[in-house]
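Why do we care about 3D structure at all? Because function follows from shape, and shape follows, mostly, from sequence. That is the central idea of this module. The next example makes it concrete: a single protein chain, its amino acid sequence, and then its structure expressed as tokens.
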Amino acid sequence: MPMPPASRYFAKLMCWATVGLLAGCDMGPAYHPDSGPVPAAFKAATLGTAAVWPDETWWRGFASPELNSLIEAARAHNKDIAASIARIRQADAQLRIAGAALLPTLGGTGGANWQHQGAGTSSAIGRARDLHSYNAGLSASYEFDFWGKAAASRQAAVSNALFSRFDRQTVGLTVVTNVATTWFTALALADRVKIAERNLADAQRVLAVFRGRRDAGTANELDVAQQETFVATARATLPNLRNQLEQAVIGLGILTGQPPEAVSVRPGTLETLELPPVAPGLPSELLTRRPDVAAAEATLQARNFNIKVARAAFFPSVQLTGSTGFQAASLATLIGPGGALLSLAAGLTAPIFDGGTLRGQLELAKGQYDEQLANYQKAVLQAFTDTDNALTAWRYTTEQEALEAVAVRQARRAASIARAQMAAGTVDITTVLTTETTLFNNEDSLAQVRLARAQALVGLYKALGGGWDRAFAPEQPVLSPGTLGGGVALPVGGNLR
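And the structure:
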């Protein structure tokens, strides 16, 4: 059956309203983020070094199958990552809700009513009858977004959805680097336990020699007592090192999303670990490779759109409502010209006096923008600071490891000479104790320096964004183009400007 003329008019009006919505007024302000001063080069960077940015699977460069397994488990089961993914879903839902305000709301109604009238209650005296009525209708309402309030709210939701994705990358990078750092700590502690055990074994062999000499009358009780003290001291260092080692392995459990009992890996050695270095490019390039900087800018843009929402609230809102349907006494005659109903209404609401609420909301939005601008600029500065600190730590720990290795070689040579002279009976216990202590301290220091160097490299990978690139972010948005109430292909790694 043809649509009544009024219904056709109503439908056309709703279409034109939608078109007008898309060209709504822009309440400003324009979005121009200020990242602050960007240096031309990193202070700690080596001149002439070509840029080598991290790969997205940078941890494989350490050539540690155990580390690869732990990181894959963490990426699949870590609870912080799972929570960040859930926050993406929440942000997408908020985007869908915000987008719904841009579209009309439609509702359908239908009903049937039966009423029995007894004798004496109707116009036909003495006769009882049943009354039936049926109705079906469609109602619609739409608020014109003349001032762009709904559009700005939706854009703020888009920015928040982008933030959730950048935050997911930040959380993932933090988890991966924490796994690597904890694993390297376990390797270093395993090395230190081996050094302490070797030192204890050497001290026990020396003690056996001095006890033999005492029994033979060529050494006194003081020599034996001094060496026994050294053995006891060496033995006492082991429980603390083993305790730290076990706790490091246990700590891998929460990072990989499993109870400690399920962590079956056993640390090997840090001595054979490959350390593939990286080098940054320009500081301006770094800003596109740090997900935390991108997250801070996404939040800044959301705050900018909130100012537009607060400004638009000062202006009147126009709402159009209408309904159309049919009502009849029988189902057979329900759909027909005689039962057609149509209503159309327009309303305007304008703020007159609100005690300063709207002005306060605008100032609040502006203050929140200024706060986030400071946070964004701090995130940029933090990116530069992290990179320079990591570069500095990498350079000096590399130098320290080389020097400490020389010291260990010299200490081993001195200890070997002292033991040979002890066997010949030409050196006293004090010399032997001194060389043993020096060797142990230097070997233990070398293990700790190796750890510091490995951690500095992990810190550099993290400072450089861990292989993430804003222009080529792999994660896709949950929403798809054309989704009702907020369907948009979010540019997860694209330029927000």
